[in-house]
Amino acid sequence: MLAPLALVLAASKSSPGLFSKARGLARVTTYFGAMLALAATLTMHGAKAELAENQISLGRDLAPLADLLKEENTILVNGERAHVATTTTHDSLETVLDRFSASCASNASPLSDAWKTVPEQNRADARDAIAAIATTKQITNDEGTVACIARGANSKASFIDAARDFAKSGDFGSIGQLRYVYAKRGSDGTTFVMTAWTDDSFSMRALTPQNGADAAGDDSAIAPRPKNSQRLLSAGVAGAPFAVRAYRTSDNAESVLGFYETSMQASGWSCVSPDGLAGEMRTCSKDGTQVSIVTRAIENGQTMVSVSEVRS
Tens of pLDDT along 9-22? Predict the structure, then answer.
């Protein structure tokens, strides 16, 4: 999940306005993937500090998307569904976060009881470590976040049952739903609120395609996929004018960029190489739509390719 994000960030340095929406989408994808993986594998060391630090940063990155993310929006990540919504309330920042924390606590997932499965002499440490993942809260003077894993319709009765079912199916819904809220105090006394959450079913296996198979999802309808490639990521917001896809190919960057420049221009697109990035990136535009192709060499002579599109 991190490699596609890095490519989108590289593109944003040359065209910050164009790729702000794609960057925000990539942050959503990465955060969901990282937190779900962390919770599912119970990798607890330092988790509370790391998640709390990232939660505020994520909210700041997502806030500029508010003009597009009205009411409820569905995010598609490799065919899996998550949701983002925005609103403004007269409740205070503290009230918003306290209400969300209370909802998490009253609807705790089986993960909150995982500490009971460890030897008694280690239970105190285990309880603290698991609490660091089950609910995290961060607040500053004018903004704050809460994230938790709440019980869902498919959550199992006990952590042992949930862990067994997750190991068998790869569906995080066996444990619960990921919930996230970012709130920011406004100068007019109102509070801006952005929430994100997963459904009762969310396949972790869809986030990590294996054995050369394409990840679920789709390819762009306006830009070709790289030759000799495997699709790793297909992410977008239903009904919104932007999407991010990532591929791994055996072709080198020069071949990839040459292929896109030739094929896109043949279809009437105008393509340019941003200053200093001729060997890494192409930006193509046509009829108010812009597509960015960003490449990065990886192991075994392969190339990671990100294809981001933004429609006006």
Answer: 334 443 444 444 44
CA dist 67 → 28, 145, 187, 240, 287 (Å): 16, 20, 18, 11, 22
pTM: 0.68
Tokens standing for 247?
């591929």
* Alpha helices (H) along the chain: 2-14, 20-41, 47-62, 93-106, 123-134, 159-169, 253-266
Distance between CA atoms of residues 286 and 282, nearest Å: 14
Closest by CA to 49, choosing from 174, 134, 172, 133, is 133
How many CA atoms are closer than 13 Å to the CA of 145, on its beta-carbon side?
24
DSSP secondary structure, 196-233, as one string: EEE-S--BSGGGS--TTPPPSS---SSSPPPTTEEEEE
Residue 291 pLDDT level (bands cut at 50, 70, 90): very high
pLDDT tens digits for 253-276?
Answer: 999 999 999 999 999 999 998 888
* 267-290 burial: b if 16+ Cβ within 10 Å, else e: eebebeebeebeebbbbbbeeeeb
Helix, strand, or coil (residue 103): helix
Whether 110 shows a pLDDT value over 90: the answer reads no
Helix (H) or strand (E) holding 137, with range, is: strand 135-139
Distances (CA, A) of 219 to 52, 187, 214, 224, 306: 34, 43, 10, 8, 12
Residue 147: pLDDT over 80: yes
Tokens of 21: 């929406």
Can you tell me the mean pLDDT for 71-79?
Answer: 80
